[in-house]
Amino acid sequence: MCIYYLYDRFDGRSEGIRVGVATGVAGFISETPVKQQRHPIDFLKQDPNAIQIPAKTTDYPPILCSVLPEVQREHPEINGILDGTISFEGALNSSPMS
Questions:
Q1: Phi then psi dihedrals of residue 74, to 5 deg
Q2: How far is CA 6 from CA 27, 69, 73, in A?
Q3: Each residue's pLDDT tens digit in the chain (98 positions)?
Q4: Which of 3, 15, 40, 63 could join 29 in a cystine, given CB atoms 3.0 to 4.6 angstroms apart?
Q5: Quick one: how far is CA 5 from the chain centroid?
Q6: Does the predicted model carry a pTM greater than 0.85?
Q7: Residues 68, 87, 61, CA angle at the centre, nearest 5°?
């Protein structure tokens, strides 16, 4: 089970964060725009090592660090998910694309 937080880039691709119960949290880039996305998302690039939550910002992998500011703008709850104050189940119940 996964929750995706994503947005469109200026070049037609999308990027964002995938939160998985078993797989952890990782950033990704996809060639598919947000409106055309379907689960499972086909990744062009993704962080090679997902992090488990709760996580320290010093442990965030590179793509996650890169996409986090934009995701935070539209989905500020991502901070609570990453630091463990919002459970996966709580996030799942409030997520539009899970």
A1: -90, -25
A2: 9, 11, 11
A3: 899 999 999 999 999 999 998 899 999 999 999 999 988 888 999 999 999 999 999 999 999 999 999 999 989 999 999 999 998 888 888 755 44
A4: 15
A5: 5
A6: yes
A7: 30
Q: Please tell me the distance from the alpha carbon of residue 43 to that of residue 16, in angstroms, as a whole number.
A: 10
The pLDDT, as a whole number, for residue 6 is 93
The structure tokens 């690039």 sit at 45
Task: Quickly tell me which residue has 């989905």 as its tokens.
Answer: 75
- Please list, in sequence order, all residues whose beta carbon lies within 8 angstroms of the beta carbon of residue 25, skipping any fewer than 6 positions away: 17, 18, 19, 50, 51, 52, 53, 55, 64, 81, 82
> Which tokens sit at 61?
């992998």
